[in-house]
């Protein structure tokens, strides 16, 4: 059975646009890519990353994998693209977060679903509201747009304009 999964991808080290593109490509080779937001640029969140602004994007994929198997795939893509985990919420080439796995709510210590920080992250909510405005959070029941309106994150998030 296929499940629709919402992923957040982003990074702030190296050629940010290239890493996003390579992550999208790797994901689309293994899963059906249903929808893709525009690329957004945002300030670092969490007060740890110091390497500059992030590029972020939200993807909707379909998969027949179980959640932990999907997590393994996303983490192997991160490793292939040079991801290192020196510091929680630190600088990175690429990060692939599983935001929603269908309507699943899970407290598995390896993978909390839905992602516990969705409602606090404007850099996730802006692109999610773009492609999935009426997607409801399985716990709060609020749509992506409602979550974005209620979000208190003051970080700047804007559609990224690639320099020519």
Task: Explain how this protein is built.
The protein has 164 residues and is an alpha+beta fold. It has a single domain (3-159), classed as 7,8-Dihydro-6-hydroxymethylpterin-pyrophosphokinase HPPK (Alpha-Beta Plaits, 2-Layer Sandwich). 28% of the residues lie in helices and 26% in strands. The chain has helices spanning 16-30, 67-80, 122-131, 144-150; strands at residues 3-11, 32-36, 40-42, 54-63, 95-101, 106-108, 111-113, 157-159. Strands 1, 2, 3, 4, 5 and 8 form a 6-stranded antiparallel beta sheet that branches. A two-stranded antiparallel sheet has the order 6-7. β6 (106-108) and β7 form a beta hairpin. α3 runs antiparallel to α4. The model has no long low-confidence stretch (mean pLDDT 91).
**CATH architecture descriptor:** 2-Layer Sandwich
Reading the helices and strands in chain order gives EHEEEHEEEHHE
Query: Runs with pLDDT <50, length 5+?
Result: none
| SS class | alpha+beta
Shape: globular
In terms of DSSP E residues, the strand content is 25-35%
Number of strands: 8
Q: In angstroms, what is the radius of gyration?
A: 15 Å
How many separate domains make up the residues?
Answer: 1
Determine the number of helices (DSSP H or I, runs of at least 4 residues). 4
- Output mean pLDDT: 91
Under CATH at level 1, the class stands as Alpha Beta
Oligomeric form: single chain
* CATH-assigned homologous superfamily: 7,8-Dihydro-6-hydroxymethylpterin-pyrophosphokinase HPPK
Sheet of most strands: 6 strands, antiparallel
Kindly identify the CATH topology.
Alpha-Beta Plaits
Terminal CA distance reads: 43 Å
Helix content: 25-40%
């Amino acid at each position: 059975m296929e499940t629709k999964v919402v992923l957040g991808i982003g990074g702030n080290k190296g050629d940010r646009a290239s890493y996003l593109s390579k992550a999208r490509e790797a994901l689309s080779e293994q899963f059906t890519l249903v929808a893709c937001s525009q690329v957004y640029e945002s300030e670092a969140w969490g007060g740890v990353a110091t390497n500059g602004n992030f590029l972020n994007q939200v993807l909707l994929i379909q998969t027949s994998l179980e959640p932990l198997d999907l997590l393994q795939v996303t983490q192997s893509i991160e490793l292939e693209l040079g991801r290192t985990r020196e510091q929680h919420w630190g600088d990175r080439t690429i990060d692939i977060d599983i935001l929603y796995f269908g309507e699943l709510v899970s407290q598995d210590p390896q993978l909390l679903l839905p992602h516990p920080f969705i409602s606090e992250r404007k850099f996730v909510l802006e692109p999610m509201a773009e492609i999935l405005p009426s997607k409801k959070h399985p716990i709060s029941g609020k749509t992506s747009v409602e979550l974005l309106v209620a979000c208190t994150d003051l970080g700047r998030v804007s559609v990224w304009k690639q320099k020519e």
